[in-house]
Amino acid sequence: MSALPLSGIKILDLTRVLAGPLSAQMLGDLGADVIKVERPNTGDDARAFGPPYLRDPEGRENNNNSFYICANRNKRSVTVNIARPDGQAIIRELAKGCDVFMENYKVGDLKRYGLDYESIRKINPDIIYCSVTGFGQTGPYAPRAGYDAIFQAMGGLMSVTGHMDGEAGAGPMKVGPSIVDYMTGMNASIAILAALYHRKINGGAGQYIDVCLLDTVIASLSHYAQIFLVGGITPPRRGTWGNGGMPAGVFRCADGELMLVVGNDTQFARTCAVLGEPELATNPKFIKNNDRVVHGKEIMAIFARLFLNNEVAYWLEKLEKAGVPSGPVNDFEQVFADPHVRERGLEVKVDHPFEPSLSLIRNALTFSETPVNEYRYPPRLGEHTQEILVRELGYDDARIAELKQAGVI
Fold it and tell me: From the candidates 13, 33, 99, 181, which is the catalytic residue?
């Protein structure tokens, strides 16, 4: 096997919580050496974001919780107090030997410590410096802090998510997981990879990258936002209804629910046959997809009645044979027990000091020549501090003891 795609790339990661750490984790999965910088004693804010926590060999809870674990594998952790001059000096020394510098502090914070892009570029002109913030480096909101749910609200995502108007519980609704953080992390990774390519292949220099959650969520709204830009109308909340083909949505069956998406007229005719009412496909109100969109409530009500006549497994088998996209509404236990998910290896095991067989979610990318097959557990707080200071900076034991005594590391 060839080396991983980013072997030889070194990243200094000063990000915390989720979006930035997810991006750095992606790059670490791809072979980059990621040095994660954390505050002494407390570490990444994510370490305090609640249970469940791993327990140490004595059964005590600690700061290795699920929120932190999901975004920090394949990294080395060093604790440095960047508010102290000696801590700032450590960061600058590490940055000299790195390809990428990542941070997600509020706009202007790192300039106070001499760790902003202009300061780092002076000591490493080739550095690719990526800032991940809520609102970006410019604009009236730039100084503001924010978390995922704020951007789901401000960026328009919540306005088009939730039960339809007129239904019980109608109104804007947050998407369950921190999806804007995840997408922002992916955007940061793409930007860093593009900058690395430009520097190496196009003979370019290092550069500054500005990625933010608000830009990301607005761009991610894709055809929904484009509907507004073209027609001036915000699309309504559709609950579980689909966005194109009709009928599409969650249908209750005799023993549970399934998700159905009828993507074209041929699939509609097949679905009607499966449901035992083939004549629906020739009804003038339902022949074409645009007709079914106009009469959406009527056809959805008809389908809802028909699906109640049998169980989920029965319908899924019939729909699969008919070539109609459908699937069960799974909880996480069902997801990770699914034979396809198991065959794809989405759950991977790592040997953690506190959990010999810790389950993680594998990287979603697959490569034929450079597979991502090394998963190192998310590091314990400061686990690699001594190793990094000795190997990367040449500090001796006396200097390290002095820094510990002063609370710098």
Answer: 181
